[in-house]
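step 3/5: co-fold with S-adenosylmethionine
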Amino acid sequence: MQALGTSGRRGEKNCDVPKLDLESELSQHTMAMLKEHLAEAALEGPEPKENYGLAQFWYSPETAKEILLEALTHFTTGAGTDDTTDIDNGLVAILSAPSLMAPAQELEGGKHLPKLRLFEIDERFGVQWPDNFHRYDYNDATVLPSELLGKIAVFVIDPPRLNMETLREYFLSTRLLARSKADGSCPPCIVVTSTALEEAVRGEFGLRPVKDFEVIHTSKLGNPLQAYTNYPPKHLNDAAWKDCQQENVVFK
Ligand SMILES: C[S@@+](CC[C@H](N)C(=O)[O-])C[C@H]1O[C@@H](n2cnc3c(N)ncnc32)[C@H](O)[C@@H]1O
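step 4/5: write tokens
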């Protein structure tokens, strides 16, 4: 099995997947057959089969659900927090972590689905989640849907490559999509990447590891990964973070 990539340059195409607009490229009949096939495949498992050429390593269902629940804590109803049903209060951008969509469908009858936006290069997810999907390639990090600029309240990011250069491209997109705040601080970000980047991501993005939470995948990975947040996590509730609550964590 191929490990997650550790290198990659801006502009470099790291996969052989052509850019396809499936709806216009395929005949109605073929498209219908593809949809039928994907619907059948969905019954066999929550996600399309992993494509290691795209560094696809799916979370276990439990891990996907826990990360989703952490993202949704920012929408819990209550004093000083956003109304969970009002998407004008912001959306969740899921950048390259499509496994979060399946638990979102199961949770509370799918009521959170309308506020999720999935940014992903693999167009199979566009067939599966047409109302949520935006084709996204971090090599073209500024190519983003204009209607979503400034609309995202929470980010979940899981890049296919484990280096700072790739992460910077993701954060470039994040800055453009982020709902602006009066104090200039960044929205909550949950990032899954290499344990080896701990120092670098803390210095550059104000991210700290969620040490109490183990990120489990359905396949065995060659590189140890961990979840990071740029705020004290609420649902994942990491003990190490509690000591840092007074620290002013900002989007750098
Ligand atoms: C390490 S996996 C993260 C998946 C996550 N663990 C999950 O279970 O949903 C990397 C993700 O990046 C996507 N990806 C690969 N190349 C990409 C690119 N150039 N731009 C954006 N996303 C890409 C893959 O399709 C995959 O969903």
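step 5/5: annotate
The domain at 52-242 is CATH 3.40.50.150 (Rossmann fold).
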